[in-house]
Amino acid sequence: MTKVIKCASCNIVIDEMLAYIQNKVSVIDEDTLVRICISSFSKEEIEKSKLLLFESVPGNLIKRKNKGKEERDLADIVQVFKSKEPDLFPIYVARELERLPPVLFDHLDCTKLLKDLLKLQEEMKNIKSTYVSQSQFEQLRSELLQMKNDSLLPNPENVNKRRGAWVLDSGPEMNLAASSANVLNVNSNQNNYGDNNHNDWHVVQKRKKPSRYRYTGSAGLCRDSEGKFKAADRNIPIFITRIHNDTTDKDIIDYVYNKTKEMITLERISFKYEREYKAYKFFISESKSTLFLDSGLWPQGIIFRRFVNFKRKITNVEATPSVKRSVDHIRQLCHTSDIIALQETWLLPSDLHFLSDIDPDYGYVGTSAVDTSTGMLVGRPYGGVAILWKKSVLQNVSIVQCDNARVCAIKSGVRAKVIFSV
């Protein structure tokens, strides 16, 4: 074998073994290709072909030694052909075609052929099960044509020609000049029909669903002012907030009266936390709601809306609030009651003096059911009773000593009336 390069542009190299391997490497497995080349080419030819290959393609040349050198050299050549891009190789050609060995049945691996046949059979079965047949394709084609024909516009004879849109073509290519002329002609002809065009149309309205409630009432409309038979006026609550702390209740009442000629009674809203502004609630007649819910009535920055009484979910702990949580309600009771008996105060022995801060005009006595001698308190406090009395009403009050921490009592008056809180 000789090394011949025909031209630099063509990059043709003459080598029978490399030409054979380059042609057969994609159709014959590596072991079979190595056996064929060993039986057809000499040791020197294999070595020269390997050197020629690595001169043409960049790579690290590995020199094999010892027994089996030819098989390893051929394996290196086959590996280079499989791992490199085909465009990197020159075109290897054979000048002595009789040197190219044939592929006989002795060189083939029957087991591999059988596996390839089984794989081919599986692929054919998959094709038959997933691909459509010719008859199915023709049936689908006929159905699509039928759908296309069904979607076409009806016969022009059945179209209302009194409307100008019927002359417009719905296709992608439309003769605008002809269509415009036809529209003008139709519009000019429509004037001859006058109001008879509406006779061909019917008004279609959505049917109202019947009410599910059978006993829905209706409101009267008669405005007869004679007699005392009239409807009761319903009051609705209005909420206003963001009011400056310097503004008094009288200032708000006078402002509303000057604007609406309506007298209102304010009820101040107490916040859970201290705010830099005030809020009020008042009631008005429902017929005046439009007037009071107008933004032009209220000063700039005042927020107003209809009052909503949010129902807060009460937990088990909030169902039995302690004295500290209910101190505002107890102070309101002090305005109307002379004697107040309290239960479930949840006060510790060191907190009983809190009862004196509720109202300075009231005397107090209380007990704590919490045992603090055991050390650290685990869980929430519990129990406790107390009595509050107005000092100006009940005089000469003495405290009755009780052995039970869940009972407290006082004695008052000449007749020694005893009052208990259990």
Key terms:
422 residues; Alpha-Beta Plaits; Deoxyribonuclease I, Chain A; four-stranded antiparallel β-sheet; 12 strands; Endo/exonuclease/phosphatase; Endo/exonu/phosph_ase_sf
The shape is elongated
Q: Please estimate the helix content.
A: 25-40%
Beta strand %: 5-15%
Low-confidence sequence ranges? 1-6, 170-196
**Could you name the CATH class of the domain at 316-421?**
Alpha Beta
Radius of gyration, in angstroms, nearest whole number: 54 Å
How is the largest sheet built, in terms of strand order?
4-5-3-6
Q: What's the architecture of the domain at 316-421, going by CATH? A: 4-Layer Sandwich
Pfam families: Exo_endo_phos
Protein name: SFRICE_027239
Domain Endonuclease/exonuclease/phosphatase: 324-396
InterPro entries: Endo/exonu/phosph_ase_sf, Endo/exonuclease/phosphatase
